[in-house]
Amino acid sequence: MSFIQVPKNSHFPIQNLPYGIFSTVQNVGLEPFYSLETFSQPLLTPSPPLLQPSPRVGVAIGDQILDLSVLAAYNFFQQGLPELPHALHIFSKPTLNAYMSLGKSVWSATRKFLQHLLSADVATLRDNTDLRHRAFVPQATARMHLPADIGDYTDFYCSREHATNVGVMFRGKDNALQPNWLHLPVGYHGRASSVVVSGTDIRRPAGQRLVSKENPTPMFAPSARMDFELEMAWLVGPGNELGEPVTIDKAKDHIFGMVVMNDWSARDIQNWEYVPLGPFLGKNFGTTISPWVVTLEALEPFLVNGPAQDPKPLAYLQESGPTAYDVHLEVKIKPAEAQDFHTICRSNLKYMYWSITQQLAHHTINGCNLRTGDLGGTGTLSGPVCQFSPFLCGLDSGTDDSYGSLLELSWSGSKEISIPRSTSTPDDVIKRKFIEDGDSILMTGWCEAPDGSYRVGFGECVGKLLPWRERGHMQG
Ligand SMILES: O=C(O)/C=C/C(=O)CC(=O)CC(=O)O
Ligand SMILES: [Ca+2]
Ligand SMILES: [Mg+2]
């Protein structure tokens, strides 16, 4: 238990402590280190010009952020954590890359140290009112930034259910799952430059797409089939040398933690362009990630067995023990004209066929080097759809809404989903097949302790779709 109050359903109890990059209007906590005169001043005096608000490293606890740059400036790490000698330098950076590059033993020691400092029975921080004012920032007053400098982004395609559903819609029932799919984690190289942090608006793209099924000639137009993809993604800690594959038993050492991700997709652009090299402009106009990186160590208690793998994978992809994570996932939509977010999908990371360690080992098996800050998307996380009650399908099965994209929920636009205009008027509904301008999409995920006493969560990954912006030179 922490001396910081954490409500039962909070995503950020002391068992989590996810890392993020945040900024505030002022660098309140660090002022005394730049100007001793301000030391006795009230904390909210305007910063001197030197003090630009700078993005820095924090961990989330309850509804607060613990500013690690302040703890470092007060020499907390120097005194209590010899494993981390350059803490002020590392935690004053605008990305997590420096910290993520240090590796598992440093992350683990830091986690223990922070849990100790935050625990209810340790007085050091708890009873130092002045320091608490400097070191804790309410999340509501902070701005979150991209957690990492992402050099490369790869997106996998590892949900068997999603790959089968998309395969049926794009290529027909007989070619749904390609012959390679059960032998390797299929992936494509995405675009790192357009990965944005939760809260960033996404603009509807235009591009080449077919006029219609009946008239399959290309035209240039705004996408009419805008979609989300419910994904999670891992961030690379220490990288590997070019030419040196990471073996599957070492793959975990290279993953710092995970986020929730929305791989926005323009299905009509994708469907026309993807042959034979895979997704390109239908997916690289924006990918949103949640700001808090939940460490693999915090997820460790929620390891479970993944789906059985048959046929047996080749030796370099074989691993033993539980390799999947039990992370409950939800997608909510809020049209501009609706009052509230409405849940349209419930799924789970544990349904994913290929594990994150298999993804990383496969990515490097040819000698490809991953670098600190690289992002690996899991692919859309659809679940096994249960058309009946959980009693008939098994309690562990997906629900009838465990499709991780609108393409699947509307079955390629053949049916509409209903969204109540407000929770108090459930019969007054707004219909959707794909995302309309002004719609917001919110994704969230959490693990729950078996006795329900706490959650280790990811917070929110949210984005609003803006209308396409016409430009004179972009004619069809
Ligand atoms: O061509 C297909 O079968 C579909 C490919 C994708 O949609 C790529 C993708 O983003 C994979 C995923 O999110 O699962
Ligand atoms: Ca995707
Ligand atoms: Mg994308």
List the uncertain runs: 31-52
Principal-axes geometry comes out as globular
CATH arch. level architecture of the largest domain: Alpha-Beta Complex
The secondary-structure class comes to alpha+beta
Whole-Å distance between the termini? Answer: 61 Å
* E-strand count: 26
State the share of residues found in helices, binned by percent.
10-25%
- Annotated CATH topology of the largest domain: Fumarylacetoacetate hydrolase, domain 2
Q: Give the ligands present.
A: the ligand O=C(O)/C=C/C(=O)CC(=O)CC(=O)O, calcium ion, magnesium ion
**Mean model confidence by pLDDT:** 92
Give the total of domains: 2
Quickly name the level 1 CATH class of the largest domain: Alpha Beta
Number of continuous helical runs: 14
**How many whole angstroms does the radius of gyration measure?**
23 Å
For the structure shown, list the relevant keywords.
476 residues, alpha+beta, SH3 type barrels, Fumarylacetoacetate hydrolase, domain 2, 2 domains, 8-stranded mixed sheet, 5-stranded antiparallel sheet, 14 helices, 26 strands, 19% helix, 25% strand, binds the ligand O=C(O)/C=C/C(=O)CC(=O)CC(=O)O, binds calcium ion, binds magnesium ion
